[in-house]
Amino acid sequence: MTELRLEGVSKQYGTDAGGTTALAGIDLTVRDGEFFTLVGPSGCGKTTTLRTIAGFEEPTDGTVSFDGTPMTGVAPEKRDVGVVFQSYGLFPHMTVAENVGYGLRFRDPPEGTTVDERVAALLELVDLERMGERNPDQLSGGQQQRVALARALAPEPDLLLLDEPMSALDARLRESLRRQLTQIQSTLGVTTVYITHDQQEALAISDRVAVMSNGRIEQVATPQEIYREPSTRFVAEFVGENNVFDGTVRTRDGDRAHVDVDGTTFELAGPSLPADGQQTSFCVRPTALTRGVEQNQLSVTLETCEFRGEHVRAYGRWNGTAVVLQLDTVPEGEAVSVGFEPAAAHVVTSQ
Amino acid sequence: MSLGDRIAADRGRLSALLERHVLWLTALLMAGVLGVMLYVPVGVVFGNAVLEDGVPTLSHVADVLTDPFYFGAVADVFADPLAIGTHLGSLAAWLGAVSITLSLEYPLPGVDLPVPWLALETPGVRKGLFGFTAYQAALSTVASVALGLPAAYILANYEFHGRRTLRSLTILPFVLPGIMVAVGFYAMFGQTGTLNTLLGTVGLGPFAFIETNPLAIVILAHAFYNAPLVARLTVAAWESVDVRTVETARSLGASKRRAFRDVVVPQLAPAVLTGALLTFIFTFMTFPIVLALGGLQLATVEVWIYDRIQRLDYTEAATLAILETILSLGLTYAYLRYESAQAGFSQAASRPTRESLVPDLRTTLSPRRLAIFTYGLVALVVFVGPMASLVVGSFTDGSGVTLRNYAFLLERQLEGESFQTLPLPAIRNSLVFGVATLVIAVPMGVVLSVLTVRAGRSGTVIDTLAMLPLAVSGVVFGIGLLQGLVFGISLPGGWRLQMTGAVAIVVAHAVAAYPFVTRNVSPMLANLDPAMVESARALGASRFRALVDVELPLVVNGIVAGAAFAFAISIGEFSSTVILASGSESYTMPVAVERYLGRRSGPAIAMGTLLLAVTAASFVVIDRVGGRADR
């Protein structure tokens, strides 16, 4: 199928002086058949990136290429991409079947099938076999979303682009739909770029994830790496809950380092630790900051506790720094002593 | 590759190229059409005013500006703008002489009904033609707001049978031909009109309402037109007031009255002001109503321009036209600035509930309800009266039921000379011009909508330039077309750009009508989810295909509504038609009505009734056709 490559893609709105930068040089390779997710807070440039790939926006600088062919100046209708929008963009004056068949007015159905067969096959793929003659407004949100997916897939696009396709649906429906989506994607093997602001969703469905912030890519990695080894402070704080501490390296000896944070010294273990005297930041997940660990003790003054069923999430302060903990039970008293293993800390760059 | 293949490939490439650029090609075509139809005529008028034998001159403009006949007391200021002390002195002297008195008056002769009368005694000041035009526009604005606000209050706050219908009907005066309204007022308030007939049954009258106080009748006719506009805008604002904001104010300690003043009024004020400003602009450029009801003794700028043209004094007419256009453009610009400064009316999250108007007998007899019913009676006289009188008046004369008026029309048709105004050609012309206007104005308006909605900021500029017809009066446009295109313009290479009166009339109508198509289509187009067009394009549709397949089918209601407006405007257009039709056989129904308006108003009233019937019938047809397209 298709490998997608973005090289130095930037997007500037308005003139140099009063303009805004939506994308500040994006480099990205999405492998053939990969389920790739762009995640980030609203306004980080993820939708602009998708619109640039689809051809609705021309980059101010840089190139987008499909399988090595530059797409500069190629109109959206010539790019062979399937797009599903957050609002679905279904045509209200056409039936479900007409919606799904619309792309086949411009591209032939796969060899050996007629348009009608192709439409029927797609409706079956998304479990909407008997809905063909309905109007889109007679369907539920989840069904509309599946029609939009079937419509995008009908002309066999090289690339499937999904812009927050589930954000209008409720949590339970979202989970079942995204299982269905990943199944369809792996069956068809179509290269897919998925946009979301929901980091949990990104971790759950993707082969690889790119975390974006302020028009830049912070990190590209597998979901496990993103969660366990965030490379920047932003990624550490955006993906899942995290405790980030800023300090200075006192001593460093091989894969061990002692870091001074506000007068308290913590021991860190792991590869690629910073050198003596350097400013550094490291993060510890709430799950790793627990009672009963002897090393790296800190006494947290509690502010609020949330009972979450399987566990308790506790918010408090240590030396003025906000700290979040995961506990088994609601603690008694106003403070709790916790610690973390030296290897549980992960160093991040502050940018 | 064989030759045939190459030709096919070339053809394919050409059609792809055409399709890709079809919107820009239509834009160019559109600019060309607008240039010839709109900017050339206006430019010709402008040239007339500031060119003398090909040499630029401001002397005509200066002559008009310093002539007290046109600018009254202000002419002195224009004549000698630096003598500020003298001007301030005369202003102070004038202000010192103003007096206000309150007295009891008996306005109806022979009736013992005292009315407290607030008299504003001002020393005579020469207003001049422009001053008078502004003066009557200001009075008309006050009358329209005064008549429109109670209607808005009732429509927004009370529930009764036919409320929704009534609310929709507020659009109707807008599409009624001005000359028909004028004749309706004749039928209502004339010597043998309905009001005098009614008063006669109780032994009063007859009164010569129109002859003794033409200004009052003209202002009432303007209110007939514009009060529904004020009401319409205000009701929309009132319905978008979020009732929770009022409830919040009440819970914070504001009384009902205080909450109304602090929360509701500030949200209504912009709408009322918008209505007032539009009313002022419309009545400043008023023409058929003043011409028919007041004549030259009550001349506004527009009527005077028309009179100059009749006397073939084109230079003076053009100079006046330019000054009038500058003023109305300034007002329109102020309006657009003001309109864009306000946030659009958002739909209220929770609308206020409406009280029933007649819940039970006791409430019905409360002072507030009685005031509402009194207003209803006044509204009946002002709004329904003229139209009903038009129909009734066509079948009656001073003494009783008669078919004489229609007999006159029939006789004129059968025995009239060809130079006379005949009823049938008028009806035929009106319908032909109406259809031709549709054919031109609807595509123009739709293309303009598509271009402006999608073009972003540059679209606003195009939009403003293309909305010029709203600010240029029909009479001005009429002269421009007459002098520019009917008399002909020499082009380089011995060509001449020239068109006949009938073609020019259609052009004038189309130019007046297409902004209404655009105004109806643009909001619907702008509200479409952009994801629909983008989905279509990602699926392989070109921009043009996406327009045809997705956008146009979804705005078909707006197109039909725009078409109805365009047709109604063509049927009712008077100002430019009367100029372009003079001395030719391309007169329309409104022009015929005006020509029949002689010593006896009977034939004109009958012709006006025919105009009403044709207008109504066309609306039914368009509604049917549109309803079918909708399905």
From TrEMBL, chain A:
Alphabetic keyword roster: ATP-binding, Molybdenum, Nucleotide-binding, Transport
Assembly with partners or alone: The complex is composed of two ATP-binding proteins (WtpC), two transmembrane proteins (WtpB) and a solute-binding protein (WtpA).
Originating species: Natronorubrum sulfidifaciens JCM 14089
UniProt-recorded name of the protein: Molybdate/tungstate import ATP-binding protein WtpC
Molecular function terms, GO-annotated: ABC-type tungstate transporter activity; ATP binding; ATP hydrolysis activity
A cellular component annotation (GO) from this entry: ATP-binding cassette (ABC) transporter complex
Pfam families: ABC_tran (PF00005), TOBE_2 (PF08402)
Entry's localization field: Cell membrane
Family: Belongs to the ABC transporter superfamily. Sulfate/tungstate importer (TC 3.A.1.6) family.
Membrane topology classification: Peripheral membrane protein
Automatic annotation (TrEMBL), chain B:
Topology term for the membrane: Multi-pass membrane protein
Pfam families assigned: BPD_transp_1 (PF00528)
Superkingdom as given in the UniProt entry: Archaea
Domain (ABC transmembrane type-1): residue spans on this chain: 130-335, 427-622
Membrane-spanning segments: 21-42, 134-156, 168-189, 201-225, 268-297, 317-336, 372-395, 431-453, 465-489, 495-517, 554-581, 601-622
Any GO CC annotation of this UniProt entry: plasma membrane
InterPro entries assigned: MetI-like, MetI-like_sf
Biological process annotations from GO: transmembrane transport
Location within or outside the cell: Cell inner membrane; Cell membrane
Keyword line: Cell inner membrane, Cell membrane, Membrane, Transmembrane, Transmembrane helix, Transport
PANTHER family: INNER MEMBRANE ABC TRANSPORTER PERMEASE PROTEIN YDCV
Family statement: Belongs to the binding-protein-dependent transport system permease family.
Protein name listed in UniProt: Binding-protein-dependent transporters inner membrane component
